[in-house]
Amino acid sequence: MAKKGCLGCSFPVLIGVVILLVLAVTGFLAGPIGQSVFKGLNLPDWIGVPRPHPELPAETVFHILGFPVANSLIASWFTMIVLVAGSWAIMRRVSMVPGRLQAAFEYVVGGLYSFCQSVAGEEKGRRFFPVVSTIFLFVMFNAWLGLLPGFGSITAQSHGHVIHLLRPANTDINTPLALALVSFVFVLYFGLKDLRFKFLQQYFNLGPMFKAMGQLFTGKVKAGMGGLFTGFIMFFVSILELLSMFIRIVSFTFRLFGNMTAGEILLLMVVFLVPWVFGVVFYGLELLVGFVQALIFAGLTLVFLTLATTAHSGEGH
Amino acid sequence: MEGIDELGVSLPTLIAQVINFGILFLLLYLVAYRPIMRMFDERSKKIKDSVDQAEYIKEQVARTEEEAEKRIETASKEGQELVARAVKTGEEVRQKAEVGAKAEAEVLIQRARSDIQRERDEAIDDVRKAFADLMVQAAEKVIDRSLDKEAHREIIEKVLEESITFKKK
Fold first, then answer.
1. Cα separation of A175 and A139, whole Å?
2. Cα A60 from chain centroid?
3. Where are the alpha helices (DSSP H) in B29-148?
4. Per-window interface: A 237-296 vs B, CB < 8 A
5. Which end of chain A is less enclosed by CB atoms within 10 A, N or C?
6. Below-50 pLDDT ranges, chain A
7. Residue among B12, B14, B24 minimizing CB distance to A83
8. What is the C-alpha to C-alpha distance for residues B98 and B91, in angstroms, rounded to an integer?
9. What pLDDT is attached to residue B128?
10. Domain count, chain B
């Protein structure tokens, strides 16, 4: 093939590259960095981006019957509508031989399904799949839809304040916390359902200690003393397990919240420092982060579910 | 509480998000998970069925092939037997025919031979009669009187008989 155009690129591509370069340079010059390097350069005001003021608490947009509706809540409703409407539209005419959309949908959902089965086993994976999959889809679409234009830029007037109408749901700490609680509740539910008393025993393991006390009273002092010691240690360990259950909620919450908020602030700052095209790279990065965080959240939930429903044989001697 | 407030934890939003998740879970379960899992099951069942069926058909084909081969074998064996029998029968028929023909020929030859014998005898007889007549006539001529024909003939016959027997000796 004979090379046409310049520098090995065809003309349309070359024009695109040139436009991108011009935009990048202009953006750089217009941003605070460019302004401080090249002082005296007077560019029109509209090129620059005003300094962002990220705030951690989500703003309340309006009240329904005294119930405050935060902008992150609206965003998560948007995510829900997209997810449900999308899957309804695709699964409405589900067929044995899938079309393109159905195949893509099946690829995602089927991938999650086989992921659950590979971790938790055939039968358990089937039971955990809806929870894990919902967490994954909710987190990922919260993150991805938050990258759409309009999030953080559409503003509304409320009680004399200018507020953002939409805010990526994951960047409001209530969303990760709610998900963490849901994950915790499901772990508890499945654990109790599958192991019943044994599940609780893992977290309040008093059995060995009482057994040792019994031995003490019946006169086997030597065995009783040793048993009391190990029994105490095992009780302590089980309390640690209990503690770690609750710490999981915190770690779940702050992992997701921290990653998503940091990503959001990173995007804001990058766009502020170097306006226009430079931020696109970070949008790509945020896509990846959204996927990875969703996978971590769902995957950890899956692992905890699997652990909670697996009897620790040999424990408690 | 100051720190938590700064993070933005608010009970109403938290509850709302938990409820949100519940609703999303239910809706997705109804709209996506249940149908897709049903379809996965159906599909895997169908695939399993068709694999089984393919296996069955394969087996059937193998069995049929074997049967056909066996049948062909027996048929060819039978055919060979038939041909052998036919050849044998043909041979027999040929031999029988040959024997019959030989016998017939023998009979014919025999008959021909006897015919020839009889003809010859008859001819000799005729010749002898004619000769006797001639002799009688000649004798009449010589003696000029008619001899007793019958008597003479007898004599001549006798002479001729003697001559023949003589000759035969």
1. 9
2. 22
3. 34-143
4. none
5. N
6. 1, 314-317
7. B24
8. 10
9. 83
10. 1
For A160, the token pair is 């004399």
CA A146 to chain centre: 12
User: Is B85 part of any domain?
Assistant: yes
Q: What is the mean pLDDT of chain B?
A: 85
Tell me if ipTM is over 0.90.
no
Cα–Cα distance for residue pair A183/B4, rounded to 1 Å: 21
Whether B3 is in a domain gets the answer no
State the nearest Cα–Cα gap between B51 and chain A, in angstroms. Answer: 16
SS3 state of residue A6: strand
Looking at the complex, does the CB of residue B3 fall below 8 Å from at least one CB of chain A? no
Residue type, A139: V
- Dump the DSSP string for A143-159: HHHTTSTTTTT-EEEET
DSSP string, A16-72: HHHHHHHHHHHHHHHSHHHHHHSTT----GGGS-PPP---SSPPEEEEETTEEEEHH
Q: Which residue of B has its CA nearest to A257?
A: B7
B22-79: pLDDT as tens digits: 998 999 888 888 888 888 888 889 999 999 999 999 999 999 999 999 999 999 999 9
Question: B24 and A58: CB-CB below 8 Å?
Answer: no
Is B4 among the domain residues? no
Which residues of chain A have a CB within 8 Å of the CB of B29?
Answer: 130, 134
| pLDDT recorded at residue A313 | 53
Residue B159 lies in a domain: yes
